[in-house]
Design a protein that fits this description.
Blueprint: H1 16-23, E1 41-46, E2 55-57, E3 63-66, E4 70-73, H2 79-90, E5 99-105, E6 110-115, E7 121-124, H3 131-137, E8 147-153, E9 165-166, E10 172-178, H4 179-182, E11 199-202, E12 208-213, E13 219-222, E14 229-230, H5 231-237, E15 250-255, E16 261-267, H6 269-273, E17 281-282, E18 286-290, H7 294-317
């Protein structure tokens, strides 16, 4: 059975201790980053308005009904934004109102994680969490591909990262991120604050380069964080050439998404190993085929056959 070789070109550091160390570099989030959702419980303190200074439950529709000022659609607002709205409405009754809002119980901060994670599903984040926080709450990437796609309802704001796009209807903002950036605790992608109903999709498609034929360990090399790998790196991962290899006539094949194979190039591995030829960069779907020296194979087989026959004759003589 052909053994499978996996080469990791970048260590993601999924271990718990490593992640705990990274958390020390996470941004300090203030209460003003909290986003209010339907059925959250709020504590409101307005020193000049005792009628309002109580505990309130946001309705399932996201509304908040308060004495004196009436209805406010609180869902989707940050704590700071709600404080501003309440204070502005109170100015009709109080010259300089001072308002503080605290979320005492989160009921609606769902973020959905799909794809190649240990525990896909919907998570109640219960307060502000970064993209990296949420990914680790889902158990971290599991045999993941190289990218992560974040989708956000535009009513919760656009995604403040380079490359973010809004759909034709203006309903969703999306951005495709590299997994290695998301796992880098100091990157903007890792520190992006998630919003309610964000959807995070970790790609599952593995990017493989194959090597078969006369190598010691035929198999596949996974491009985990890189877009390409050299033929020499793939050969090294396969344990080098066998004694029957013809490295000067190595073929590079490619398999497309439909499973169709085609020869795209030839490479003289012998010249490359001697420093006299140019190496070749390989991309996902490439297959390195190292051919066999049939004459050597025939001689080797004949030698084995003769040796076996000789041993049999000697045994019969005795």
């Amino acid at each position: 059975m052909m053994s499978r070789i996996v080469v990791l070109f970048f260590v993601l550091g999924f271990a718990t201790n490593s992640f705990a160390a990274r958390q020390n570099t996470q941004p300090v989030l203030s209460k003003n980053d909290n986003v209010i959702g339907p059925e959250d419980t709020l504590n409101i303190v307005a020193g000049e308005a005792e009628e309002i200074s109580k505990t309130w439950r946001v309705s399932a529709n996201g509304d908040l009904a308060l004495p004196m000022i009436g209805h406010i659609h609180a869902a989707g607002l940050t704590v700071a934004q709600l404080e501003e709205q309440i204070a502005e409405k109170l100015k009709a009754f109080i010259r300089e109102p001072h308002v503080s809002v605290y979320i005492s119980e989160f009921r609606s901060q769902p973020v959905t994680i799909e794809g190649a994670v240990a525990k896909p599903g919907t998570i109640q984040t219960e307060g502000p969490k970064t993209l990296l926080n949420v990914l680790m709450m889902a158990g971290g990437p599991n045999a993941a591909g190289p990218t992560v796609i974040l989708t956000r309802k535009t009513k919760n704001g656009s995604i403040p990262l380079d490359g973010a796009k809004t759909d034709a209807n203006g309903e969703y903002s999306t951005v495709e991120l590299k997994l290695k950036d998301v796992m880098n605790a100091s990157s903007p992608a890792a520190n992006l604050i998630m919003r309610p109903h964000d959807v995070l999709s970790v790609s599952t498609k593995q990017r493989l380069v194959y090597i078969i034929g006369q190598v010691n360990r035929p198999g596949a090399v996974e491009l985990d964080t890189q877009d390409s790998v050299s033929a020499m790196q793939v050969l090294a991962a396969a344990g080098g050439l066998t004694s029957l290899a013809v490295p000067s006539n190595t073929a590079i094949m490619h398999v497309d998404e439909k499973g169709q194979y085609s020869k795209v190039a030839s490479i003289n591995l012998k010249s490359v190993m001697n420093g006299k030829g140019a190496d070749r960069m390989l991309t996902p779907g490439d297959i390195v085929v190292v051919p066999e020296n049939h004459i050597k194979s025939y001689v080797q087989a004949a030698t084995m056959s003769a040796t076996t026959s000789g041993m049999y004759a000697i045994l019969m003589h005795f």
